[in-house]
Amino acid sequence: MTEGPGARDTQDAGEERPSHGAHGRPPTAAEKWAAFKDSPFLPALVLVFILALAAGLFAGSYTYTMADPTPRRVPVAVVGGTGAPPARTFVTGMEEALNASLVLTPYDTAAEAREAVNEQEEFAIVRIRGDGVELDVAGASGASVAQVLAETAAQVGARTGVPVVVRDIEPLQEGDPRGLALFYISLAAVIIGFVGAIQLSIHARGLNPAERIAFTVAYSLLGAFAIAAVVDWLLGALDLPFTESWLILALTMFTSGMVFTMFNTLMGRWAMLPTWGLMVLLGNPSSGGAVSWPLLPSVLGHVGQWLPPGASVNAQHTAVYFEGHQHLFPFLVLAAWALVSCAVFWVYRHRHPGGRGRAPAHAAAPAGA
Prior knowledge:
Blueprint (H helix, E strand, L loop, with lengths): L4 H10 L14 H10 L2 H26 L6 E7 L5 H14 L2 E7 L2 H9 L5 E6 L2 E6 L5 H18 L3 E5 L12 H23 L5 H26 L7 H26 L4 H12 L14 H6 L4 H14 L7 H19 L22
Parallel strand pairs: 1-2, 1-3, 4-5
Antiparallel strand pairs: 3-4
Helix pairs in contact: 4-6, 7-8, 7-9, 7-12, 8-9, 9-10, 9-12, 9-13, 12-13
């Protein structure tokens, strides 16, 4: 029986016709990889591993530096010399108990030793009083150091029979008994500083370079004012030298924002990695804000002073507790990071993923002109 045209059309419609050409073969491994690289799945997968690594490093860096602070080299002023038996016995007992060395510097008078403490060159003063010893600590120089020295001195005195009197000659403010408030406000300035720069890159992408720097200055000044006002005026946790503390926080926030902007210029969307590593993983634990630098691993204690978080903590700490003894070094560190970041951003601004395009000068004239 001969099939009619309708039956053949129905049969052909139900059959899958063979395909021809490149679209008919399975994609090769190279083509699959190329498609995967162009998809959003590759950066998402990379971020999964990066965030897992960052979580471990974040916990590890803070635990390593803060969980078990150990004295290593503690600068101590000595008035009256260490030749007398009580002093020699006490110092030897302290070094054995701390498993660290006290870096002893002799001073002729108690006033000279106190000035060295105010300059933050020394962390304590040992004075001989008859058969006993007086130990002056400075909680404002480092609460963790002062606590370790005071507790150890009492134990050494009881064990060696040397009478020991411990005094805190520069205590912390009542609203900050552990000395952490300055660390927290500096940490807030650092984090909000680069988070602000990230938000500008997302929500104000069209800003040109000069405009981006100007808005970074603006949110730094306003954000720093808010931090200082909340901590001092609203909560009363600290009695700040308001203008100086405000400007230190503003410089910190601006520096942090420009560090991210610099890395964003050089590395594009992966700029968060070096920013987070420099400012949070390395900078904050080594800043000396939560744990004073004599209790930190020696390398971190030195490196931290050259990074923006450490410089911010140092400047803020001196402003609040050692009025009239401010140092230039932390401001130079912050300024250097800010200037280098601005310079790199400005020189390579054509690579920054933002800004507004300019209309070509030779644009066609309107019709009929």
